[in-house]
Amino acid sequence: MRDLTLVIMLLSLAWMAWRLPWVGLLGLLFIGILHPQNYAADFMRGFPAYSSLMGVVFLSLGWQLWWQRVFPPLFWDWRLVLIGGIWAWFGLSSYFALNPLPARDKFLELLKILPPMLLVFVLIDSQEKLRWLLLTIALAIAALILKGGYWAFITGFQDRVYGPYGSAYGGNNEFAIVTTMAIPLFVYWYRSLQGRWPRFAVGCLIVLGFASALSSWSRGGVLSLGAVAVLLVWQSRNKWLAAPLLFAGVGFAYVGLPDAWFARMETLGAPELEDSAASRMLVWQVGWEYAVNHPWLGAGLQSWILFTPPDAELRAWHSAYVQMAVEHGLVGLGLWGFLLIATLFQLSRLIALGRCVAAPWISDQAAALRASLVAYLVGAAFLSIAYWELLYLLVAAALVLQYQAYSSVRG
Asked: What share of the chain is helix, strand, coil (3-state, %, to 5)?
């Protein structure tokens, strides 16, 4: 029955993608985040749903360009060159990698991130489409949060919550970060809605998002959640209401979470006392030493296996920053970091612009994207998530938002 449901869903999305390519893009992002094929029980479990739907979207876009002569408005941003430069550097470091065959296979896999970004640049050409893009990403993660939050409450936060098996968010740490990244999008969704009951439903999603992140028992997730909570209160229009809600949430967590949860969080202050944290510190030290000695191209993709000490518990860099520095050198880390920092800076400018010209849609969307990226940047310090597709989609959305905002202001 689950396989039949998935077939019907894919056929419906393919039909909508053929009629309206931008709607097909939204369906593509929904499938890419939710991974519904992992819930299949039989013949659809290994079906390439994402690739198939992407093919339909590109065919539909090509047909419209050729037959209807409808050309989307294109825009220029210097960060497009930076993105191209980052991928060129990925390719160069992969060519000279210490572990060449796995590195080149991984590089080909990373190239799959670029087509969805290109589709965002081409198809999301209006304020309403960008709004639906952000809401679709939030809705896809909401489907994960509903399950995680439900499990957190029925178990009394005694058990860890995990994401979909086989996805980029399958681990409890990864699930915590993607959940935290979604919370600002829920807040934007809440602000854009009218009516008591729709806002109540999204408010419940925000609560479940916090509960899911806490019940993941992820230390990096807790730090990311704290950063997002403070940022959301700071940029809230009603700080007199948001601040008490934050303190109430902290009080509930203090009372409701088990002692074992607090014992795990205490290792943040003394990581050398906990085995997995101590292993991470050892791997980080090895990685940074190599990056400093090989600052240009690094060791290439999939090189962590050559550096991880044989007696270490972990088998990954467990830090996106160390991962980028080792795999692509300090130059690669600098390019990647500059893209993210520049995007945060531009989003901050857009927040100020929206308030200056009394355009709440600009400031609200920019604030949501900025808080989501901050959640990622904090969580990335403890996880090897440098190549998450969701990150680059949010960067693409930020570029589109900047173009649309300045176009709207200029009239």
From this structure: 75, 0, 25
**Could you tell me if 169 and 175 are in contact, meaning their C-beta atoms sit under 8 angstroms apart?**
yes
Residue type, 84: G
Q: Is the pTM of this model over 0.90?
A: yes
| Residue 7 and residue 44 in contact, taking contact as beta carbons nearer than 8 Å | yes
| Tokens matching residue 197 | 């009951």
Amino acid 235 reads Q
Q: Which of 211, 223, 227, 135 is nearest to 179 (CA)?
A: 211
**DSSP letter at 310?**
T
**Element (DSSP H or E) covering residue 180:** helix 172-192
What is the C-alpha R_g of the chain?
Answer: 21
* Per-residue model confidence as pLDDT tens for the chain (411 residues): 677 877 888 889 999 999 999 999 999 999 888 877 666 666 666 778 888 899 999 999 988 888 877 777 778 899 999 999 999 999 999 999 998 999 999 999 999 999 999 999 999 999 999 999 999 999 999 988 887 777 777 877 777 888 777 778 888 889 899 999 999 999 999 988 888 888 999 988 998 888 888 888 888 889 999 999 888 888 777 666 666 666 666 666 666 677 777 777 776 665 555 556 667 788 888 889 999 999 999 999 988 878 765 655 556 788 999 999 999 999 999 999 999 999 999 999 999 999 999 899 999 999 999 999 999 999 999 999 999 999 999 999 999 999 999 998 886
